[in-house]
């Protein structure tokens, strides 16, 4: 069932290292037990709020509408039967969670985005996923396949109300230049459990941006492995949690080939009672992966009392022959010096806070590299800040 390239298979056979945060997977659903919350990879996730998507909830519900736009030469559409089954595990990966194994085993159709070799897409490929019913549970499988030396941007927008478990597999061909942006801008009652798995080809460049604002519970795993030397992955994330929201992002860069690179930067802000964010970063450098470079960074800005931000970077290194590896993590409130500086020049406290938050996010937003998305993100950050301002005004008047 798994479609694993020769180079990936050879590296894994020679170097059977099991990451403590990413156990060996299996396509057999029975091999992936229902999590209890005591497992390391589930201990932060509020299982009771997942509507059993992590366990055995039905995955055949009709609670989303999907549409798309694509430039000439790019094929987008659903496939079923043997064609869909052949795409299960096309990224050279076997699922290590029950929900992912169930999606690949039980969801009959796959949405395939196919970018031919050598094609340079003139505009972004946009997938619109609109939720229609959060009381119904469903599953989805998406494959983004980019031919050698192609260049393309894919944007996946999630809006509306839904409860969805999804697996997205990305195959980046040799020498390709690919950007994938996933925006979780759900309604307040949505639940989204997803796993993104990328296989980056020789000398290819891959950028993945995970952006989460809406939803009751959103958990996304963004993983990458390499299909030869010279591949580069940039993993970006931006999230903003309000009262009661749980937003969880996990990344895993598995350096299974020499002279590969990974660079991860995730930034988040929290406001409101019981707003909770989780970021878990993990990099595994296998013995074969000599000459690699990796760095992971997470920054969190706490805007009000009653919030919790968990940030856990990890490095697992099996060889000393590397160019560089490191990580950084910080969680803090507003910088009093910055606020004092702005207020001393006549800027109101609320405007000073707004400027500090924009400065916190601005450099990351610019890294996304899609102008229309950058403008949207700046607008959304402004809207999130306005929610807190309105709450303060309401509290002052009571």
From TrEMBL:
InterPro entries: Fe-S_cluster_assembly_SufBD, SUF_FeS_clus_asmbl_SufBD_core, SUF_FeS_clus_asmbl_SufBD_sf, SUF_FeS_clus_asmbl_SufD. Residues 136-360 form the SUF system FeS cluster assembly SufBD core domain. Pfam families: SUFBD_core. GO terms for biological process: iron-sulfur cluster assembly. Belongs to the iron-sulfur cluster assembly SufBD family. This is Fe-S cluster assembly protein SufD. The lineage of its organism: Bacteria, Bacillati, Actinomycetota, Actinomycetes, Propionibacteriales.
């Amino acid at each position: 069932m798994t479609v694993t390239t020769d180079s990936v298979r050879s590296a894994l056979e020679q170097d059977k290292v099991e990451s403590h945060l990413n156990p060996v997977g299996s396509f057999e659903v029975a091999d992936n037990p229902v999590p209890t919350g005591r497992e390391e990879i589930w201990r932060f996730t509020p299982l009771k709020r997942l509507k059993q998507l992590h366990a055995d909830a039905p995955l055949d519900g009709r609670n989303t509408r999907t549409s798309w736009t694509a430039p000439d030469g790019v094929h987008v559409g659903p496939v079923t039967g043997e064609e869909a089954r052949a795409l299960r595990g096309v990224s050279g990966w076997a699922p290590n969670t029950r929900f992912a194994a169930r999606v690949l085993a039980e969801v009959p159709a796959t949405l395939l985005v196919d970018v031919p070799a050598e094609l340079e897409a003139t505009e972004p490929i946009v997938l619109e996923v609109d939720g229609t019913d959060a009381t119904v549970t469903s599953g989805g499988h998406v494959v983004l396949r980019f031919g050698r030396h192609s260049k393309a941007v894919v944007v996946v927008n999630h809006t509306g109300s839904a409860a969805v478990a999804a697996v997205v597999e990305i195959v980046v061909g040799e020498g390709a230049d690919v950007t994938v942006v996933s925006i979780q801008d759900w309604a307040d009652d949505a639940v989204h459990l997803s796993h993104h798995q990328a296989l980056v080809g020789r000398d290819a460049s891959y950028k993945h941006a995970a952006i989460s604002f809406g939803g009751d519970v959103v958990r996304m795993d963004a993983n990458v492995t390499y299909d030869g030397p010279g591949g580069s992955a940039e993993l970006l994330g931006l999230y903003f949690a309000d009262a009661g929201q749980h937003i969880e992002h996990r990344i895993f860069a598995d350096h299974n080939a020499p002279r590969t690179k990974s660079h991860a930067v995730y930034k988040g802000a929290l406001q409101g009672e019981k707003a909770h964010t989780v970021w878990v970063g993990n990099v595994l450098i296998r013995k074969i992966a000599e000459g690699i470079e990796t760095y992971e960074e997470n920054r969190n800005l706490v805007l009000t009392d009653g919030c919790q931000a968990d940030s856990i970077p990890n490095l697992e290194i099996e060889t000393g022959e590397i160019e560089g590896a490191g990580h950084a993590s910080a969680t803090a409130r507003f910088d009093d010096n910055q606020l004092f500086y702005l207020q001393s020049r006549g800027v109101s406290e609320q405007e000073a806070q707004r400027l500090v938050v924009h400065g916190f996010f601005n450099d990351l937003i610019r890294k996304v590299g899609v102008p229309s998305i950058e403008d949207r993100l700046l607008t959304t950050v402004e809207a999130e800040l306005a929610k807190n301002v309105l709450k303060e005004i309401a509290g002052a008047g009571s």
